[in-house]
User: Fold these one by one.
Assistant:
Number 1:
Amino acid sequence: MTTWSQFTEEAPQIAAVFIRRHKATGNLCMLGTLRSDGFPRISPVEPMIFEDMLVIVGMPNTTKFKDLARDPRFCLHTATVDTKVTDADAKLFGTVTDLPDKQVHARFAEKLFDDSGLDLRGEEFDHFFVADLTSASTVAVIDDHLDITIWKPGQGERVVRKH
């Protein structure tokens, strides 16, 4: 499994764009999953980096989490309203594992309360998905071209320039 710190070491530019765009939108990202009929689903989600993990949790019994329980593949895209992509955007790809550790859940709920005031302390998570990143990319418009930065585990970042 690729930890968050491994990802940020191997892909510092992509990680920086993800963090910047994630914060700029109040932690909102768009989650791509696969529905039971095989078609894609796009859903809003607020992932968190917690204890060196990218955690994807949310309201219980949502279809996006049923999708992930059935097929763990996902795409996470930073939300944007800027059609010119002047601040770049990031996409993270991977699979999730449902982590059943109640002690981790309790620490997560405490941090969530400390950070946002949302009180889920003492509540059970129906899913606590932890991401294993398999690739990532960013797109940035720079002057007269696009810079697409791509990462795969163990390969570092590479930039593809499109004019």
Note: The helical segments are 4-10, 12-24, 63-70, 102-116.
Number 2:
Amino acid sequence: MNKVIDKLAWLYIADNKLLHARSKNKVLFYLPGGKRETGETDQQALTREIKEEVSVDLIASSIKYAETFEAPADGENADVTVKLTCYFADFEGQLTPAAEIADIKFIDVQNKALCSLGSIKVIEWLKSQELLR
């Protein structure tokens, strides 16, 4: 039986690059976001996770569903999949790594090998939608 890690992710593009975060105990970069807590909506969970990870406040009225992706989960057994429900949103504040985040980086299509398989799928989709070149 396959296990699915259900996560929410924020898609923020600037200068033709997509914002990524790297945890202190990881090598690869991934999309900022995380898991819902009991009773949270996607919007509530995403807003909380983004505040915890990169110190900014998402603007609720700007949060828009993008797409959902599935890929093998980074650092897990082969039967574990990550499901990324992705949203676009504007924000207020200064992007700063916080909590378990060691680094944040804007990554372009040419450097997608720095990212988890889930992030690579998202980058390729954004390219296909002509949102990244």
Note: The domain at 3-128 is CATH 3.90.79.10 (Nucleoside Triphosphate Pyrophosphohydrolase).
Number 3:
Amino acid sequence: MIRRGRAEGWLRERIEGLPRWANFNGIRFAGIKIGPLPGFEERGSTVISSSKLVSGEAGALLTVPKELILSRQNIELFAKSDHHLRELLQSLDDFGRTTRGAVLIFLLLQATICCPDVSNVGVHNPLTEYIKFLPDELLPTFWTEEEKDLLAGTTLEPAVRAKLNSLLREFESVRTATAGIRWCAQHWWDEDVGLVTFDDWMRLDAMYRSRALEFPGVGDAMVPGIDMANHASGEATAALYETDGDGNGVLLLRDGKEIHPGGEVTITYGDEKGACESIFSYGFLEDSLDSAKVMFLDLKIPDDDPLAPAKAYVNNAAPGFRLFDKDGRIEWESDFIWLVIINEEDGLDFKVKQTIDGKREVQCFWNEQELGGVLKLHEQLKETAFWDVFQLRATVLVQNRVEEQIDALRATGDPVTTATVRYGPQELASKLRALELSMLQKAMKTLDNEKAKLLDSETVQRYLGLIESEDEGAEQEEVDFT
């Protein structure tokens, strides 16, 4: 149902209609326009300066009326005058009250309103036409199986697999929740003439995931025009976005910036985002990127851990650890790992408590005090005399997992590609593999150094029995004296 424009001519015609739509709906342009960057037409449309822009002289480059901001709050306002939208949101319960759920179902309804085969469904509003201007994004969820195989050994491989499973669950949940609505059953889900497929749901997800920005006072939202701006990090970021005193979305030139006519006006999607997330959410990598920046590696509680079931039950942290590049040094952080490396002999304990309504729940205790959550465990361990020992266990566990990931990347090498693999996915997968392997190798060196320092710790050496404790020495001297 959601039309995908592959023909270059149709795409050009579609985007050329955006200024007319924007002007009609009160969007104001000042010294900029939206279209393909000269010399880089294959990259699609972006925000371009139509006159010389100088910070301090230029005001708001783009002003978007607050009622055109596609946010959860505005969708709820639209629902007051559109009973079809209102019954959709109500049918989805908690999912319909999230920003993501509200935006996706709103976009699906707008696509339905635009469909020539459907009549008397939904209320036409200014944003109904906007969905026609959103280009298709070649995110990894749309890669072919052969192209996804290129990700073997990278952190993007499990992320894409998990996302597809999550999208399928969402799609089935939405279908089940709305199947009882008469017009949905007819136009969306009918076996013979139903218009909505899983591919449509993936396209809606791609629209939202690649274009949602966090606006002050609004939260995650899609803002027409501003969400056409491309990303650039660091000093290359030309403009910033925010809301003005009236709640309108505005695009402003950064201090010290000057852009000549025909130059690109870029924003940042988040400088701290790693290579994996850039491909996952936006389908690109910056040309200047020389580090994977951030990697998340999953961890499992060992099967031979007698406390494994109880640990899994109480855990509320992400099951893994995050590697990140901090000024050229690779560091890691995790709440989950501290739960994995401690045991009953250290002071960890679990008890079953019966609640008032007769149900049972598992409680976690550290040194006979109720812990109150895994996220507090790290601070508790730092206060103990065996902190160096716990750090050593965690470091060894992280190092083993990093080595395992390196082996996985090396085992697959650079997968052989065929003529059916597109250039974009091939190039992105190859660069991601190189960036992640380099970061993992740097992490191994850092972890080796950390492990060596911890092994020199007096606390660790006493724990390992490499040196005698004072009590043991005193006892031995007393025995010898006797």
Note: The first strand starts at residue 28 and ends at 29.
